[in-house]
Design a protein that fits this description.
The chain has 120 residues and is of the alpha+beta class. It is 45% helix and 23% strand. A hairpin with a 2-residue loop joins strand 3 and strand 4. Helix 1 packs across helix 4.
Length: 120
């Protein structure tokens, strides 16, 4: 789990993203009756990109910064994120469509690179 978190931080940085916050979630889930080993959410983005997008499209504010959950359950580590392309269903602006596609491409590549590095 710790290695995956380190790799995720490195890859996000390599792709030009900055981490805004890392939130430990397993405590809250356990308090609510769920059983989980480790669960952290990584909030990330590109500062200027996010600032420009939310200025021009304030309706995006609830979806930003982008988020990735890293979850450990027994011997399995999961990396989960909303596919940004799904937002295309709600926002028809062509520039946003392109942005969502770039984010999807980055997230897929980051996940693949983290997964490959974990297996080395």
């Amino acid at each position: 789990f710790d290695n995956t978190m380190i790799l995720m931080k490195e890859k996000l940085n390599e792709y030009g993203y900055k981490i805004a916050h890392i939130q430990k979630c397993d405590g809250g889930l356990t308090d609510s009756g769920y059983q989980t080993d480790l669960y952290k959410s990584i909030f990330y983005g590109k500062f200027q990109e996010t600032r420009t997008l939310t200025k021009n499209h304030p309706e995006l504010i609830p979806y930003l910064p982008l988020k990735i959950a890293v979850i450990k359950e027994k011997d399995t580590i999961l990396m989960v994120s909303l596919n940004p392309s799904i937002l295309s269903e709600f926002f028809s602006d062509e520039d946003l469509q392109l942005q969502f596609g770039r984010w999807e491409s980055d997230i897929r590549a980051i996940f693949e690179e983290v997964d490959k590095a974990r297996k080395l």
